[in-house]
Specification:
The complex is a heterodimer of chains A (316) and B (310). The longest helix of chain A is centred in the C-terminal third of the chain and has 39 residues. Chain A has a five-stranded parallel beta sheet, with helices on one face. In chain A, strands 6-7 form a two-stranded parallel ribbon. In chain A, strands 8-9 form a two-stranded antiparallel sheet. In chain A, strand 4, helix 4 and strand 5 form a beta-alpha-beta unit. With 316 residues, chain A is of the alpha/beta class. With 310 residues, chain B is α/β, with parallel strands linked by helices. Chain B folds into two domains: 231 residues, TIM Barrel (Alpha-Beta Barrel); 72 residues. Classes of the chains: A alpha/beta (316), B alpha/beta (310). Chains A and B meet through helix 8, helix 9 and helix 12 of A and helix 5 and helix 8 of B.
Chain lengths: 316, 310
Amino acid sequence: MATRRVRRSGLTMPVVTKRFVDNAWRRGCDYINLDLEDFVPQHLKAYARSLIKEAIPNVSQGGAEVYTRINHDYALADLEAIVWPGLSRVNYPKAEYGSEIRRLDEIITRLERERGMRPGTVEIGANIETAVGVANGYEIASASPRVQDFGGASGYDMSRDLGVEMFVGFDQFVYGKGELELIARTLGIEVRGAPFVANTTGSVSDGDHAFRQAEAARKCGFRLGGGLNPAVVEPQNRGFTPSEEDVRDAHWVLEQYRQLAGSGETWRQVNGRIIDRYEADRARDTLEWAELCAEHNHAKAEAVARVQVAMSQASA
Amino acid sequence: MSTKIRRSWLLVPMSKADCLAQARQAHADVVVLDLVEFVTEEDKPAAREQVRTAINALQGCGAEVFTQVDLELLYADLHACVWPGLTGVVISRLESPAQVVEADTLLSQLENARGILPGTLAIVAALETAKGNHAAYDISRASQRLSGLTLGRADLIMDLRPEPSGEIHLMPYFMQRLITVAHATGVMPIGAWWRAPDRGLFATPDNTYQAAQRGRAIGFQGSLCILGNQVEPLNRGFTPAVEELQAAQHILAAYQAGTAQGAAAVKQGDRIIDRGTAAQAQHLVVLAEACAVREQEKAEALSHPPLAIP
């Protein structure tokens, strides 16, 4: 499997709101998701599309990847306008059939060729937001190698489609999320999911909640974050990154595991904890991820520094 | 139909002589001689050679004997395991119906070669990967030998970790899916509802009992375990408690009295006892009796000296 990309935090923003777009590089997130869909009013759809090409280099200056969320109903027109160098992902809302994804793949393939982008650069995020999407999950997720992570079946659209309430103190999407996670794991692609942490207020800027959610997700093995408000970026980056204590603990587990070699035992208990190959795998995973996060933080910090130098030279 | 009572499935590492010696006295309904999870790669060849002796040594102790075999080493493991006295095999990490068919064919050949009644050896599919769970329904229908489905150590093999709620991630979904498929295909759902800090079938006796009780409540009928001290909690947790049995008997008595007078349903306290309620009570009474019979069988077996098998 390819090295996991670091996508702990991301902001989805309407591409028509200039101050969001112009400040995006300062936000410290791992990706920016430029929206053409629900945050863009109907009369601005065409105008919004025309902004993407220039927004890509702008929002990525701070080291963030760039995604675009297109409209389900205008997918073809949107794609023509947005597939340009620097774009790493197209998010496709309300995916319901494998044929839709195959069609997107064909068009993206052509645009990559015409515009000098390496084949396969642009991923497809197949957003499952309807019951039909859940029922056809396997054919959707397996329709294109551009679908590299899969999951969901939660959120406002799903709630509306199923007629369930959005902010309740229990997990209302057990079945749909389980189905999609099983499909992702069966296909060997990254799981887009998270353990349930109650959010009964619907707040999008609660940093404490964002941190708890991110930390619980990481401890459960998940890596993908994202949100709508800059206040959750830092908490998500922090929550999805192994703490120093987690790293120390992982080293300790591996040290204990090494002592099993040659003993004829497959597991042992140390300080009440079981040490076996599964624990060792988890520890290695933690260390690898901690290193990727550190590298990525470093790369982003350097990118931001370059922008600041360029700006001060320009104003001098 | 008489349901097999297989509440506790004690995994015993084939490489551990002391564990094997204790297995006779463990009071497990099933002893599973393990060649997969608890035997190191280096020890596997030697462990395989010991299986026949171990099967013989367990005869007459009252437990059924299964072995747990490795899908990737299926040929060697089955050749080592299939001897008279074996009831069946747990196949770890099963992922497709084709693999079940392959195992079925191998078992048939070995039954023939080794004087075992054809078609008698059972297969329990351990669905411990995503592929296996995805294909559960087809796997469960792939052979007449298929007699049980379990998630085995899926939590470790699929790296499913505890959530803040204490549930092990994805397990509530996986358990219900497996139980539904098992009942749809007429095989036994084997497992327990483990919660953090339980991991990989390992838990304290108390937690094991809780997991068995919760497991029985959602349709499991027995579970694998690793330690001797988990056997009694599993047997107890999967057996109706005395109060449950008494309540069921009262329900049945009330229902029978009512139907004898031509009523379809009767009132007992605040409850309405209809056909469904009575059928459930009847099932519980039958289960409790079968468990008692099984306990007696095991007690009698252990009171006799081990049979010497040449």
